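Is zinc ion placement plausible here? Inputs below.
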Amino acid sequence: MQASFHNELFLRKQAENKEKDIALEIDYAKLGLKVGLEIHQQLDTSAKLFCKCKPELFKEEPEITFLRKLRPTQSELGQIDPAAYFEFQKGVKILYEANKATSCLVEMDEEPPHPLNMEAVEIALTVALMIKAKPVDEIHVMRKTVIDGSNTTGFQRTCVVALNGVVRVGEKIVPIEHVSLEEDAARKMGEEEGNIIRYRIDRLGIPLIEVTTAPVINSPKEAGEIALAIGTILRATGRVKRGLGTIRQDINISIPNGALIEIKGLQELELLSLVVEYEVQRQLNLIKISEEIKERGVKGEEIKDEFFDVTDVFKRTKCKVIRKALDKNQKVLAVKLPKFKGFLKRELTPNLRLGTEMADRARFWGRVGGIFHTDELPAYGIITEEAEELKEVAKAEEQDAIVFVADSPENGRDALKAVMERAREAIKGVPEETRAPNPDGTTRYMRPRPGAARMYPETDIPLTYITEDYIKKISSRLPELPEQKLGRLMKEYRLNQKLARQILDSEYSELFETIVKESGVSSTTVAAFLTETLKSLKRDGIQVEKVSENQIREIFRSVSSKETTKEAIPDIVRWLSKHEDKNVQEAINNLGLKILSRKELEKIIENAIENNRKFVEERGVKVFGLLMGVVMKEVRGKASAGIVSELLRKKLEKYHHHKKVSPSA
Ligand SMILES: [Zn+2]
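Reply from A.M.:
I modeled the complex. Tokens:
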């Protein structure tokens, strides 16, 4: 099912490319694409990894908040992360939110961590053995420097559980470098005025399993397939959390002459191949731009840290953003990018230009809303006269580009310095960086790639020894492997291979078996709902994850007890997704989907015959199809087609019989 979704996106994109007359066929193997994946999946344990708190998220207002200053943590080698140091200088503060059920003094970093949660260790070892990885003898918990405030400690605890496994997809064999356990980070809730970032620590400490592949994946399609295969193995344990946000993938991508790019935190597996594809496209375009810039004879040292105050140029501007800044007594600062004209508007991937990359940097380092540049003028209310005057003040030549921002002089300078840095990098090619995925499969700048030495031992937690007996015990009760399960689903539930594969690849294989067993609704109906129907609802923008598994089970129980029909299921799910606190009964009542009694149905059918009397008399029994349509339109979701057809047939026969008999009587 993921494959078909991806194909759709791919085809749409190809069509777009055709429109723009771009021939885009990339031989990825020849290109030398290398992709490695890190899959992070929350485990479904009863407690967090280093304390007894409930591993759950809360929606209510926080019971506790506390403010901390971000301080750059120093690893043993004395390396300070540039992004962390920068934010520290800016005086960024973190406001943490918590409640008592989901956090204790451990999450607040007021108490040392408890020993490693052995339930999580057991799940991780189960996964490790399923992919033939070798468990370690001793588990050493390490600290990994984290720079953004998402951990109250300034580091994330992580430990390797097993090494050197293998995952197969068709002919492809992908080595798994390690299986690890990690504590999940706090979740970001937003940013406030005055450099305050809000994080909620309910998620902090939830156990995550991390499965890391070797960077041997050679195409976007393969990347999607491998991620899916690993996800299926994780779910086969039956002990991982499900739903959006419970699985996150980091993707490392590199091509020769490009750079190693880490894309962090992709949640939608269906987007994975597209993300890889776009990243290759982005790097190829950046390489091309760098070649062309060099041809124009631009050198990095020509891009000088020279700022022009161009506030006066915009004294009478109609541009709202600039107007607003000027009303606050802020300045418009500009820099010149020699011979860069035209490059800033060059598209790297859909909706992403070199200018966008510069704006991302400006936002991160300068905390500005965005940038303006001459490649896009006139626009945003900035007129040609202003653009011309701008060039004059900045002493720009015809081939130069000018970038400018309207903000406080301090932010403006930081933003423009970042823009110039990005421009110098554009001459060299592709800069190494950490990026974040956008909902359309493109990515944006997140932060510079952190240095290598980020790990040091966690001295508060004792070693955990993994004995051979313990491994034997876990080996003796390994869950069914995905391929075995595929065969069983086909046999036991008489599903065809396609549907069985879709159920297996979905998040719902367990739910599928539960529903079929308890409701007795046909296995094909249940399988088609859990795959095709849910997918198409999602595509329509319905937040199906808001409907719980218990509710889905209840819907099918209502179908089997004939309270509603299977045709009504999509409408019920749609309604429940928009009414989170309501139940299935209320959905059925509110939607008027309660199944009709035989009497009510008979009445509707009689009316239909009466209203279409003319056709009935002209066409005799041939009118059946037409009336069936009329009635079903009225009762869809409230009566099964089978019963309607049975009653309609009877009524029609009776009607004609009556007709034939009555005149002579
Ligand atoms: Zn706790």
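Short version: Confidence is low (pLDDT under 50) at residues 1-7.
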